[in-house]
Amino acid sequence: MKKGPARDAPTPSTATRRANPARDARLPDLSQYGRLAEYNRKRHFGVTPEPPGTTRAREAGRPLEFVVQKHRATRLHYDFRLEHRGVMLSWAVPKGPSPDPSVKRLAMETEPHPMDYNQFEGVIPEGEYGGGTVMIWDKGIWAPVVENRLGDEDEVDRQLKKGELKFVLLGQKLAGSWVLVRTRGTRQWLLIKHRDEYASGEDLTVTKPLSIVSGRSMAEIGRAAGASPRQLQQAAGADPVLAPSAAPARRRAASSTRREPVRSRSRARGKVASSAP
To answer: N or C: which end of the chain has fewer CB within 10 A?
Structure first.
């Protein structure tokens, strides 16, 4: 006669929990963070100086922000971020944006970042997600474009779904008309400059390598923020050989800023600013 199963035999779910006790630990509920849940999940804010992720409502009439952060993590890349519905949509651009319309830059979409991240410049500690030196390489305002006019955030949603986002930038290094084109899957895009008065063959990552907020090089940012010896070596390697000393470049940048309000840039600033609903 066949024997039935012992009464105290564990059920499959009980056996699984015993074999994998770590699964009993409940993951924190990050649903309150919405689009920033993934950003918060990847970071330990008691360790990293990065800001915690919370969405922010846009004030009526305020233009949309953009920022480009030079980031020496496992590899050097430029984080290209566009404000949309309270967060910063983000793409990692390995070689940095190019103002040359013939150059198509790979841009890998990453998790949205909080608006407060636009002010972050410093060092993410070793062992943390994205550990390394971060520079605010450029920032300014942006607006979506549809049929030769400026659009709204609904238009951004439509174009992102379609996989082709057209926009204008007005920053200290990047300006004019651009497009992001999705090429494969959901994350792989190309960042391309349109041909206009701001197009050029200049490699801005080499000719304009310093932070627009502090005027510092990657090595200087690393030293000031207490980078580890390894991170400091990586940060120094991310600085172009063209500018061994940041001080003269800072003086040139300050002089250029005083002369900056040329007529065409002033016109562009008015156009982008007027896009705010």
So the answer is: N
Q: How many domains does the chain have?
A: 1
Residue 56 is predicted with a pLDDT of: 83
Domain that holds residue 157: 33-241
Note the pTM of the prediction, 2 decimals.
0.79
Which amino acid would we find at residue 115? M
Is 259 part of a structural domain of the chain?
A: no
Residue at 100 is within a domain = yes
Asked, for residue 121, whether it belongs to a domain, the answer is: yes
Q: SS3 string of the chain?
A: CCCCCCCCCCCHHHHHHHHCHHHHCCCCCCHHHHHHHHHHHCCCCCCCCCCCCCCCCCCCCCCEEEEEEEEECCCEEEEEEEEECCEEEEEEECCCCCCCCCCEEEEEEEEEEEHHHHHCCEEECCCCCCCEEEEEEEEEEEEEEECCEECCHHHHHHHHHHCEEEEEEEECCCEEEEEEEEEECCCEEEEEECCCCCCCCCCHHHHCCCCCCCCCCHHHHHHHCCCCHHHHHHHHHHCCCCCCCHHHHHHHHHHHHHHCCCHHHHHHHHHHHCCCC
Asked if residue 227 is part of any domain, the answer here is yes
**What CA–CA distance (Å, rounded) separates 262 from 84?**
29
